[in-house]
Amino acid sequence: MKRQTMINRLDQLDEQLTLRTKAIGVLAKDSHETLKKVPPVWLIGTGVAAGALVGFLGPTRISALSIQGSRLIPFTRDAFALGQQFGTGE
Q1: CA torsion through residues 59, 61, 64, 69, sign
Q2: From what superkingdom does this record's organism come (predicted)?
Q3: Each residue of 27-70: pLDDT tens digit?
């Protein structure tokens, strides 16, 4: 591969990285804004509930349940999309 070709390829990759970094920054800002809207009581309450659940079931069972639960992600995505369709009155 010629030097100029390598330089051009590196420039392309650098531009892609810059775009991805900007996209991640926008998503992070959006996530931060969403979390600001959640009352602190809910955040603390869910943290306490999660901690109690891990203490009750133990880390091994929680990780097994998490793996099983991750298999449901495609179904929940479809269910939320369906719920949004009905929820907007369309």
Answers
A1: negative
A2: Bacteria
A3: 888 888 888 888 889 989 999 998 898 888 888 888 888 888 88
Angle at 42 between CA 41 and CA 45, to 5 degrees: 80
Instruction: Determine the Cα–Cα distance for residues 72 and 76; give it in Å rounded to an integer.
Output: 6
Pair 31, 40: CB distance under 8 Å: no
CA distances 75 to 25, 61, 62, 85, Å, are: 29, 22, 21, 16
C-alpha dihedral sign at 54, 30, 79, 70: negative
Q: How far apart are CA 7 and CA 74, in angstroms?
A: 41
Task: Report DSSP letters for 7-18, one per residue.
Answer: HHHHHHHHHHHH
Q: What is the pTM of this model?
A: 0.44
Most confident of 16-20, 66-70, 72-76: 16-20
